[in-house]
Amino acid sequence: MPVKIAPKDIKLGYAIKLPVGWMKHPFLTNKLIVESAQQLRIIQSLELEYVYFYPERSAVVIDTSADTTDCTVTQDLADVQRRTEMQLDKEQRIEQAKAHRRELQKTEKAFAQSMAQVRHLMSKVQGRPLNAIEDATQLISQLADTILSEDALVLHLISQAGKEQESMYFHVLNVSILAMMLAKNLNCSADEVRWVGLGAMFHDIGKLKIPSQILRKTTGLTNPEQNFIKLHPKLGLELLALTQHFPAEAKAIVEQHHEYLDGSGYPAALNADAIHKLARIVAVVNEFDNLCHPQDMSQARSPHHALSVMYKTMKGKLGDLEMKMMIKMMGIYPPGTVVLLSDQRVGIVMAVNSDSMLYPDVLIYDADVPRLEAAIVTLEANKLSIEKVIKPKALPPEVFAYLNPRAQVSYFVQQKN
Description:
The chain has about 425 residues and is of the alpha+beta class. The chain has helices spanning about 35-45, 75-120, 130-145, 165-185, 190-200, 210-215, 225-230, 230-240, 250-255, 275-290, 305-315, 320-330, 395-405; strands at about 5, 15, 30-35, 50-55, 155-160, 340, 345-355, 355-365, 375-380, 385-390, 410-415.
């Protein structure tokens, strides 16, 4: 537990917290470890009545380079200069965070527009399937143009919450985006990437013919209900049979996205050789998203945990190459993962960059900074690393509310600026 001490009693190595607003001091955070005599003098110059001292996190350091009580004119000038530099650096980082947030807002707006297109085209599937396919082809083409570009890609966590009855729309958009990225990483052709996107967009349309009370049931399904749900690939093909404009490669995805390499899947219990290579790609992404968003959300896994579960338990069922590439593509810490950083701050991964997968962008929890102004830091630029993953359920309520690790984990992709 922290104790109050006077600034004059602070020693080098002390872990402290400044009891003032974030904008009233030049440090990047209110919590810090006093590492130099100059830093100590700057803290004492803030004219605070007290600071919070954390004994368990402190280690007293003996500084032989200077007498911390001897404030000469030279020291005063150096302290003013250093404080000014720190303030300028802080302001620059605040502006960078604001720019990062503006970029995220732009991505969220593009995601919302794509979601609106998904809702619209899905409403046409049963009555006007040709129009639905045309709309889907246009949407997939737009997304594929971004994914197929030579530029580095940024995979963003989208913080918009979805309505329960729209979970299918979020699911198919998630699976379409991630499956196209996976197809690109597996060196599929541009046409194959687009077929993957189109097949993924329609992979669950057969569920439109299944009663909603079965689809939304959170308790165990009866055997007849399970068998009914297992019909959705065939029901999807029946809907697509209403038009001849759906590519055969995408139809294979709709038909086979629940087939497993060992023959234990459905609806046809196909073995590895009989499963289309594009269906194998979508099957991996579909499994991942279903682990993140099961019908019973109390069983939901974090993105990091979902990848771990897949790799440990789905060998022999899902393609090994596809799973390894999925993990490589998403990063060790996918967007949506709550992490403890090397400086002991807690945050949530907001984005991973395809050209620096080990250094994601992390939104930092700081009780003294309003959430809408929370710093989003790039680990590489700040010389930070991730110490461990934290389960969202283990977070204190105030940290959980701040970081807001949503049950609905949605992704969107854009080119890196």
